[in-house]
Amino acid sequence: MDVSGGSGQPRSGNDKPAEHPAGPTAPTTDPTHPTGPEPHPGTPTATPQDTDDTGAGTSDTTPTDAGPGGTSAPTGDTGRTDTPGAETASPPQTPGTPAPPETTPAGTGAQHGTHPEHRSLAHSGIAKGEPLQPRPKEPGGGILMGRPFGVPVYVAPSWFLVAALITWVFGGQLDRVLPELGAARYLVSLFFAVAFYASVLVHELAHTVAAIRFKLPVRRIQLQFFGGVSEIEKEAETPGREFVLAFVGPLLSLVLAGLFYLAMKPVEPGTVPGVLLAGLMISNLIVAIFNLLPGLPLDGGRMLRAVVWAITGKPMSGTIAAAWVGRALAVAVLIGLPLLNQSGALGGSSEDTGGMDTVTDALLAAILAAIIWTGAGNSLRMARLREHLPELRARTLTRRAVPVETDTPLSEALRRANAAGARALVVVDAHGNPLSLVRESAIVGVPEHRRPWVAVSGLAQELTDGMRVSAELAGEELLDVLRATPATEYLVVEETGEIYGVLSAADVERAFVKAMARPS
């Protein structure tokens, strides 16, 4: 998840409600009341419910490269979703600024599960029952080539590098097979590179169609260095569907290899069409076999994960088993691929293998091994992420807020917030409709002696539709909404349209980091 800015303190992570700092005890003279969760000493916090982890089968925050034609399971990013990975430093405490509560490990909510007894006269400006829809944004990731089945297909910049490499290597082979082509061999080689990646796209479309058939959202397809990746944002509900979702990609590659083999039959060997068809047949066969290797992040790893999931009933167990097999495969590729080439087992002659070929083989093996090892590690991290996502709840992470009108001096707004034990300010109009959120970082930047002359409206960020968040959101759904509209603060509202409080992106980051730090 991309979370921008914000530096607020996390709410309490223990089983007691967060205690607000001592401040003026006299009630505020402002006719409005603070919004957000009321602290009730002794009231236990709502305990997050566990849900199944998703492992490698979803997109969620950062998708893993699946090698040639493989799928990644983001997450969320999701999709290629970036997750918050580092804590944000808290701002220096300045006089007059609403003091944060005692900082304790975040990750669980500090509020009680019931709705607060008092609500502001302000409302969110959204009609009751109207769904909160984030603005859809393009995932990006390269050059948009089209939208088959409604899914954007991107070509990453790294594809041009590998296309040039394929053109150069295949051109050298054509020079030995068809020397009469001369320089034109590189045009034929470029056509082969494009046709090969078209086959990889078909492989990825197979995953996409299966995902759509199972009602799983697909964020995008990306063609990149060493293959393609389909970013499926949700996990399959059953191990059987997970197995099918992973198997259809290699199956389509095998079908393509068979079709190219049949197309070779009527073509004369030693011609340009014959050489191209033979190359495409062999390359699709390699893609299918490589992706059937039983280790994450490859399709075969997801199939293994599905089998272990079906046997144990635990998706996490399947992810762990498939990820460690993937790491073992990475080591085997690193050591075994150069040795196989040296021995001539892959079709070459051991006598013709020179020093440059040895270096090239070792470099290729190292890159492939790094992709597999990294992908296996990412799959484990994504599984842990999915396991802890239910702990992120908008209601428990929300700060209490005080509504203030646009011309209210900052010093007076902060006095009201301190008196109410609130930690956020919502700018409203004369009718109580929220207009903007006062940015915490902007408050810190105003010297204390200037605060009586600075209006809160000059420090606020205007509310957009995507900055209104339902108090009922939790887990992956919450992260998706925040990712769709990056901001430092969000207005949290009830289903009735009433303001519940303000959610700081920094609080979500800290809760996420603390949750990920706990053992599974």
Automatic annotation (TrEMBL):
Keywords from the UniProt entry: CBS domain, Hydrolase, Membrane, Metal-binding, Metalloprotease, Protease, Transmembrane, Transmembrane helix, Zinc
Gene3D superfamilies registered for this protein in UniProt: CBS-domain
Coiled coil regions, renumbered to chain: none
Membrane association type: Multi-pass membrane protein
Biased composition (Pro residues): 92-103
Low complexity composition-biased segments: 20-33, 43-91
Cofactor(s) the record lists: Zn(2+)
PROSITE patterns: CBS
SUPFAM superfamilies with a match to the protein in the record: CBS-domain pair
Bilayer-spanning residue ranges: 151-171, 183-206, 243-263, 275-298, 319-339, 359-376
Pfam families: Peptidase_M50
Predominant subcellular localization, coarse grouping: membrane
Record localization: Membrane
Domain CBS: 397-456
Region (Disordered): 1-141
Family: Belongs to the peptidase M50B family.
Annotated protein name in UniProt: Peptidase
